[in-house]
């Protein structure tokens, strides 16, 4: 169940994480001056739902991340760009973390891992990227889920949390997501969370080695009931 995982390519510096245990981190997120002027000081909300919570990726998550991705390879590959040979090496993972840190620092890119409240096991990931300010105020959603956790409602809770974060904390006006027409699980998830299909983007992204059409979905802040965070 994946929508353009490669939208994850960017994200903080100045992120302070205390504590190595999952869910016990304290986050300090400075943003560039322009972002502060536009959206004020952003506080990380309590990104926790009934069954899952969201947390920034950490170095200690590497082995669990690599294992879950490799176990789910046949499940994920049809919906993602081709995996390079070193896709799940420690070096590559550290490169991802550096990009995530830079993106959060700039206020343009946020990547979270999804964990189980009950077991603290990694379930998947979700991102908000390509954040545009000014007269646009939009961002793009991407996510992935380990095969053994698919179909249990975990990504629905994750997407619900990310939507509230985008609209209530980042003060965005519009969210977008894209899905291959045959990815029925992703389409059902988006529509369940209120996204509206706007049209078909032809040959939009090279997925699994082939250029693929994608449905474009969007959700506006005015279409989302206000919730406490």
Structure in words:
It comes from Bartonella choladocola. Pfam families: Acetyltransf_3. It is an enzyme of class 2 (transferase). The chain is α+β, with helices and mostly antiparallel strands and 229 residues long. The protein has one domain: Gcn5-related N-acetyltransferase (GNAT) (Aminopeptidase), CATH 3.40.630.30. The chain has 6 helices and 9 strands, in the order ββαβαααβββαβαββ. The strands form 2 sheets. A 7-stranded mixed beta sheet has the order 3-4-5-6-7-9-8, sandwiched between helices. It has a two-stranded antiparallel ribbon with strand order 1-2. A hairpin with a 2-residue loop joins strand 8 and strand 9. The longest helix has 17 residues. It is globular. 37% of the residues are buried. The N terminus is likely disordered.
Give the structure's gist in a few sentences.
The chain is an alpha+beta fold. The protein is built from six helices and nine strands.
Keyword list:
two-stranded antiparallel ribbon, Aminopeptidase, N-acetyltransferase, 6 helices, alpha+beta, 229 residues, single chain, globular, seven-stranded mixed beta sheet, transferase
